[in-house]
Amino acid sequence: MKKLVILGAGTAGTMILNKLEPVLDKDEWHITIVDQYETHYYQPGFLFIPFGIYNKKDVIKPKRDFFPSGVEVLFDSINKIEPKENKIILTNQKVLNYDYLIIATGCKINPDETEGLTKKGWYKNIFDFYTIEGAMGLAHFLKYWEGGKMVLNITEMPIKCPVAPLEFVFLADWWFTEQGIRDKVEISFVTPLDGAFTKPRASKVFGDFLSKKNIKLVPDFSTGSVDHENNKIISWDEKEVPYDLLVTIPTNMGDELIARSGMGDELNFVPTDKQSLLSKNHKNIFIIGDATDLPSSKAGSVAHFEADVLYDNFLSAIEGRPLRAKFDGHANCYIESGFGKGILIDFNYDTEPLPGKYPLPGVGPFSLLEETKMNHYGKIMFRWMYWNLLLRGAELPIESQMLMAGKRK
Fold this sequence. Notes:
The protein contains 7 helices and 25 strands. By secondary structure, the protein is an alpha/beta fold. It has helices at 11-20, 132-144, 164-178, 200-212, 256-260, 300-318, 373-390; strands at residues 2-7, 29-35, 39-41, 60-62, 72-75, 78-82, 87-90, 95-97, 100-103, 107-109, 126-127, 148-154, 185-190, 215-218, 223-227, 232-235, 240-242, 245-249, 252-254, 285-287, 331-338, 341-347, 356-360, 364-368, 371-372. It has a 5-stranded parallel β-sheet, with no helix packed on it. A 5-stranded parallel β-sheet has the order 11-18-12-13-14. It folds into 3 domains: 2-106 and 255-318, 3-Layer(bba) Sandwich (FAD/NAD(P)-binding domain); 111-250, 3-Layer(bba) Sandwich (FAD/NAD(P)-binding domain); 331-390, no CATH class. Helix content is 23%, strand content 27%.
């Protein structure tokens, strides 16, 4: 019997499991999925927790709720992968052999990568919102905060969900207005990029939004250290930004098991063919989601589009056929802009976000690169779609390849 092992039961791993399990002959294939944590987090919801829109129970469910029957599930940590031997060694020394491996181990924040970040100010007046602990701690802090300098700082790229920092400051502008203290809060958006976003046209649009909302943009700031005694962040070229509240997006890195296995780059991301999603170094290993080193966004929509491509290419690989399905870097993101409105962007490797209508040309109902109430509703509806459709591998009426129909150049 052939063996497929999926490492990681987050968004990407769960989606590809649910797509492949129904079509692999159970007399020929044994599927195992491995993850060290039993709780599934709806990570886009972390953004809403500091502002009291969601609470903890809105963003967590047991991972077992989303696994099909007949799949071997192991909740255990992994020591390392030995790709030349086609085996995985768990921390309890159990060995898993595989014929094919799908790596979906994601990425996480590593605040210890920045000098001083996790010293005395950590979770006192320095918070992340990329973990449930950080989001809950920040919610408690904001409940009693009376104002001052709030700095959002992206330490370095790439990061999971590149639009989330923008959403945070847009929602903060709305929330402080609702609390009646917006005039007492100075908001700064401090980024290593040369603008508000990675793509030039969208960067200008978002930069204009920051200006309109009286949020100061500080570009080209490469964070070197945090001086928690004097409440300031310091760049490698010795620029300084003072804060009373620091909301940090620390260095994002792939799982440490990738480093232990000698399979990753300096940030523990796995070298991946940008179109086929096959490992650049091993012909029976595919990579999906945030674990890849692809020049695409690390976001749930990207994992969804990748899953469609990986599904086709996996079936081709096991049948000895060429891998013809190609991932084009497609991403689309709903961006909360505050006050019950949102923005939508749709782009890929080669095409930056453009204005237009989505998903139906000329009809929408969503507007691209524009602020509308409908885009806000799309963001809110996404949580239901995530739990009930996306994780379960359901087919959606959205192409994995980005379409130009409905877009205006």
